[in-house]
Structure formats: C-alpha cells, structure tokens
Amino acid sequence: MNRQSIFENGDTVLNLRTIFRQLHKNRLHGTVMENSSLLSENLLDYLDSCLDRFVLRDRLFLNPDISIPFLADKIHTNRTYISLAIHNLYGVKFSEFVSFLRIEYSKKLLKIFKLDLEHVASACGYMYASQFTKKFTEVEGMNPSTWRHFVAQSTEK
Question: 58 near 20, Cβ under 8 Å?
Fold first, then answer.
C-alpha cells in the first residue's frame, strides 16, 4: 500500500479524532495549567479549534518540517501563542505534542497495514526509520516491531 492510499483512507480507517481526544485527557487529569493569565479563554478556544483542524483535516503533524513558526503561519498567529496554547491545552511542549500524534498515528498504521518500518516512519513524518524507532521505543517502551507482534498476539486470543 502506498503513502497516498493510506491518506485517502485516513478518515475512515485511521480515526484521528480519537487520537486528538486522547490529548484532551490531560485536562481531565489535572496535568494542564488552568486559565493562564497570558491567554484568554476565547483565544484558547480559537487555537484549540485551529489545532483540531491541524490534526483532523490538514494532518500537518505528518510533515517532517513541522515547527512552531510553520504552524503559527498556517494558523495566522504568532509562535508564542501556539506554544502557550499547546502547553495550556495539552500540558506538553510542541515537540511532545507532535511526537504523540505521530506515534499514535504510527500505531494505527502498524496495526492495520503490513508496511515495513521505513514506510511507516515516512508516512508518519520521520525522515529515517531509526529516528522513528528511537522515538517509538521511548514512548511505548518497546520497538515498533515488538509492539506490532505483541498487538497481533493479543488480538488472536
């Protein structure tokens, strides 16, 4: 399966809304700053909807060159607001936000498609499979191949 067909099926097969909602759980667990005096609630709501669009429609997190300035330009705001919004809304830094989205997306790909790690890494915005494997292992506690094998075994039972 090529990269284009993965994206064509993305909305139905890879439910990004579920991935995005997992980030919102930080609010419920009290790990997020409440009502920052630096950003109004209205501005946070606006940036939250923009970030939702960033995940669900544009999938900018899959771009290997994603950065705060790049995203700020797309959302038509400044870098400080993007950084503060992500920290206030999700309790993480921008790099952790992007990594989380990429790893969750990669888990969906690993589970559904029989792609090799290089293709999964590329589809998830990583330049190199080794970079992807390192980040995946850091987040999940096991490498992607082991994770895929573990998931395959658990679904067989």
Answer: no
Which are the contacts of 119, defined by CB distance < 8 A and separation ≥ 6? 3
Sequence-distant (6+) residues with CB within 8 A of 137 are: 143, 144
pLDDT of amino acid 44: 84
Residue in 23, 16, 21 with CA at minimum distance from that of residue 90? 23
Condensed to tens digits (0 to 9), the pLDDT of residues 56-105 reads: 678 999 999 999 999 889 888 889 988 988 888 888 899 999 999 999 99
Q: What are the φ and ψ backbone dihedral angles of 92, each rounded to 5 degrees?
A: -135, 165
Q: Could you give the C-alpha distances from 52 to 19, 20, 26, 128, in angstroms and in order?
A: 11, 7, 15, 27
Sign, CA dihedral 6-10-15-43, equals positive
Q: Are 87 and 33 within 8 A, CB to CB?
A: yes
DSSP H stretches of helix in 76-143:
79-90, 94-112, 117-123, 129-140
Residue with token string 């544009």: 58
